[in-house]
Amino acid sequence: MEKYYITTPIYYVNDKPHIGHAYTTILADTISRFRALIGEKPTFLTGLDEHGLKVQQAAEKNGKAPQDHCDLMAPAFIDLWKKLKINYSDFIRTTEHRHTKIVQKILKKVHESGDIYMDEYEGWYSISEERFITEKELNSGQFGQVKQIKEKNYFFRMSKYQTTLVDKIENDELLIQPKSRKNEVLGFLKNELSDLCISRPKSRLEWGIELPFDDNYVTYVWFDALINYISAIGAYSNDEQFSSLWPADVHLIGKDILTTHSVYWPTMLLSLGLPLPQRIFAHGWWLTDEQKMSKSLGNVVSPLMLIDDFGVDSVRYYLMSEMVLGMDATFSSESFEKKYNSDLANDFGNLVSRVSTLIKNNFDEKIPESSLAESDLSTNFQKIALKEQLDNLEIDRVINDIMTFIRSINVFMEQNEPWKLVKSDKGQAGNILYHCAESLRLAAVMLSPVMPSKTKDILDILGTNDVELVWGKLESGSKISISKPIFPRIS
Ligand code: MSP
Q1: Domain extent at residue 418
Q2: For residue range 75-95, what is the model confidence (pLDDT) as tens digits?
Q3: What's the rounded Cα separation, in Å, for the pair 295 and 231?
Q4: Is the CB of 21 inside a 6 Å radius of any atom of ligand 1?
Q5: Ligand 1 neighbour 293 (Cβ under 6 A)
Q6: What angle do CA 451, 455, 458 make, to 5 degrees?
Q7: Positions in the chain short of pLDDT 70
Q8: C-beta separation of 344 from 376 below 8 A
Q9: Which atom of ligand 1 is nearest to the CA of 293?
Q10: Helix (H, G, I), strand (E, B) or coil at 313
């Protein structure tokens, strides 16, 4: 079985999870379930980023020791992922020993190879970004609280790898998507790259992984955090597992953390002599009234609130289908309700009820026999290019194509009127209803990565658990069961 290693960013535990975090995690889960559906073996990693100034400050604010603060926050994420039906393979916290020991091993290695050196640095430091910023960045005024700092620190020779990195990005050996983000990174790399400050003196920040070669310092949070992608799968501890999974097939990230993933991370890997991830995909932001949702803006929509009102599967469906991958999307409860009612309640849910009721009333609750080998529906099903779209990560298009297929089942019903046919030609009515029911099975299977529970309910109604994406697997004679509407209308 082909492996597929997919990751989400690891989330800061300075705050509770919100729709932005939920989106990336559901997206990774959906992609991972899709890969399993097409016969691959996905490994899906997510977790928490627990070091650094932001977390230390949040802990102070709550009057807790940093580790206690992290231990208190972690369940909020884990519980939400459970509620959102997130089927991750592993969940890493950067305060775990399995991670800290690998970060220290790597620091030691890079230091010994000469790619880490000490220097005195004076410059502007952004509190929110937790990094030194350039004069140009300072003048942009985008960095909120900044302060001038002069101190001795350790630096990673990022500049040494600039040319190699540019080559690999240009020829897509490291594929950065969407194209606009690739261009953004290449634009950034047109300027001479400076070396990366990878330490923080303990006098200024205590909460971090101690440098193995100087106990007066802790590791810069990004140098620590990025390593999670390899520490979790056995880098420098379990060679067999590591080489079977690395390089990652895709790192999913939000567009705000593009530079750290496309510049810092690959140069770290180049220094270690490890392969680069195959692909980095940066999605857009969820906005409300065109502003990024964030705690400080006070406009955060809690995904939990949506789930309680409308069910997990419909929230997953909305988030996955509404955001054109790579672009920003605007969330509103009106657009949620509109999409729910038109796609799920009307197009999909009603159809399931109509088809199952017709079978119940006319075919003794059993899937009818079919002597019809092909129909518009079997042809439409064959046209869906699932694998290609998945390879391009076009999840919203995959969903859209499946919905088009579902709408074509409705059209097929209208054209063939099986409710009339049963009176004149019962055999043909059975053929039509078989083709509708089989199409519903296939649609439910194809949407199962997005809506794992509701699609299971639909398969139960159709009396099948066959999830093979091959036309004709629905067995004639199997008993259907009628239930309440799967997607009751929101009024
Ligand atoms: N800890 C770092 C990532 C380290 S990865 C080695 C971090 N954490 S974060 O919690 O601040 O954000 C994690 C992700 O959530 C980012 O990819 C970010 O883009 C995403 N989102 C945060 N708010 C968002 C929206 N409103 N919409 C969509 N995603 C956004 O950065």
Answers
A1: 332-461
A2: 999 999 999 999 999 999 999
A3: 30
A4: yes
A5: yes
A6: 155
A7: 289-304
A8: no
A9: 26
A10: helix
